[in-house]
Amino acid sequence: MSCKLSPFSIIFFLSKNRVINILIVIVYFLCVVLPREWFGNQILKLFENFSRQAYQMATLVIALLFIAAYLFYLYRLLRNNYTFLAVSSLIILLTLTALSYPLLIIHYIEAIHYLQYAVLAFLLFPLFRNYYKLLFWGFVFSFFDEGYQYFYLNPDGTKYFDFNDIILNQLGLVYGLLPIAIKGSVLLVRRKLKSFLPELITIGLIVIVIIVLCFIDLLSIYPDDTIPFNLVRELPGSFWTEIKHLGVNYHIVLPVEGLAMIAVIYIYFCWVLTGISYSKWRS
Question: Of 32, 173, 29, 33, which Cα lies nearest the Cα of 96?
Answer without folding.
Answer: 173
